[in-house]
Protein: Pectin acetylesterase
Organism: Brachypodium distachyon
Amino acid sequence: MPPLSTASAPATHQLRLWWRRLGRRGAAGAAFGAALLAAAFFLTLSRYASVPSTSSSTSPSYGHRLPTLVDLTLVDGAKDKGAVCLDGTPPGYHWLPGFGDGSDKWLLHLEGGSWCRNLTWCAQRKKTSLGSSAYMERRAEFVGILSDDELQNPDFYNWNKVKVRYCDGASFSGNVEEELQDGTSFFFRGQRIWEAVMSELLSKGLSRAKEAFLTGCSAGGLSTYIHCDDFRALVPKASTVKCLADGGFFLDVEDVSGRRYMRGFYNDVARLQDLRKKFPRCSSNMEPGQCIFPREVAKGISTPMFILNPAYDVWQVEHVLSPEGSDTERLWESCRLDITKCDSKQLETLQGFRKELLDAISEYKKRKDWGMFINSCFIHCQSMNALTWHSPSGPRMNGKTIAESVGDWFFNRREVKEIDCEYPCNPTCHNAILSQAYKEE
Ligand SMILES: *[C@@H]1O[C@H](CO)[C@@H](O)[C@H](O)[C@H]1NC(C)=O
């Protein structure tokens, strides 16, 4: 095992999020006043994504030690396969070997970080870790579902764990041969990156996995829906393989101005990286962007999946429901950053958003081997930090933390189909209060 380290947080931590814990008495509006500030910590915010994905060493730690830091490995021979990041550099991953009876079990996490929809934006991205391994941190903290601390990660702590870095801009799904776009060099090779990383991990022991778990958050959650069955096919037939998408159920809904902003966004991504061909089952009368939404993608998945998603995913509230361009009068400015600042009409809109999510996942509720945990919290990416994944003060449903619920489902200890009542009914929520600096595009 790599040595423990006391290194400071990676430089990408830009966003300070404050978590406010509702009082035990919960529901009444007055309770907000008495809300108590339980903990504060930093989340990674990729500049272009506004997608928090990992917590830093300043997080409260419920293990008795600092998170393990895991070195970055660049994929061997990736350039020869044309499996490269947006800027042509090789892709990478962080591998923490398993131990004890976890030695032949593998948990992969696909990193998130939004998408780039046009060349201007992809050009910016080339100068960040989300488009180039030249900018990736050399070591990553393994926390939450990636933690090797039994107290923080009771069911998976001793598994092999891999954080796969995201640097293609389109959820590991593009595969465009041409390098030049409008005279500038861009590589849209996410699909090849997926294949190259998997092939390297297979040679390191994944090919002999007894149990395997593909996970990812945000854009990485979408990647998980997209690649779950591909992953299943790589691992021995006799092994147990399941997938978990965290905060990745993006909805094709109208925003506060009545536009389908997210569909337009996905249409751009799909056209730019020619994604349509990755989804041959998607109906031909659909716009290319429609094929990418999890509601569509999940229809074809035959591997057991766990949908972990807050009903009011903050990233979606900010970028799908009330994107800045659709809120010209800036009515949503404070509500989108802090759910306690929403007026009754906005709360009604948020409840409508929750209903759309429940409607979209209803057909997956019927699948016996699927699991879900849809808590009514104002948050994003709950598997990627100690507090929300598994801690005495973390979010719960049915008395269980997210880690316990996911473990119960993975190991068939019980059926897990948890759907929370409406906000603000769940007193265990950690609702994010985003700073004004939290801005995209
Ligand atoms: C490119 O995308 C960015 C961010 O998504 C957007 O703000 C900008 O208007 C787009 N530019 C063009 C030329 O479409």
Residues 6-440 form one domain. Residues 1-61, 437-441 have pLDDT under 50 and may be disordered.
